[in-house]
Every structure is written in C-alpha cells, then in structure tokens.
Specification:
single chain; mainly alpha; ATP synthesis; ion transport; mitochondrion
Length: about 55
C-alpha cells in the first residue's frame, strides 16, 4: 500500500511546517491590528427570564 510509505510525505510535511513557522509566521505577526481590543462593561444587568409554566 503506497499510502503507508511515509518517505516522501513526511519530508514534504516537515518542509511545509518549517517554511510556515520561520518564513510566513513572522510576516503575519508583524502586521498592525486595526481593531484594538477594549474592555466592555455591562451597563445594565439583564432581567431573569420568567417561564410561564413555573
């Protein structure tokens, strides 16, 4: 069964993983985030749901 032979596919997977982690990831992480996260506070506490059968 050829799919059980990991010889060519393992090296392809390793090369892809290394190229992503060392070449692409620093470029992607260097971008400036456009929306900075902010802390949201709840203005009002929601009222509990009233069930008609209780």
């Amino acid at each position: 069964m050829p799919q059980l032979n990991p010889n060519p596919w393992f090296t392809i997977m390793l090369l892809t993983w290394f190229s992503f982690s060392f070449l692409m990831q620093p470029k992607l992480l260097s971008f400036i985030q456009t929306n900075t996260p902010s802390n949201k506070t709840l203005a009002t506490k929601p009222a509990p749901w009233t069930w008609p059968w209780t």
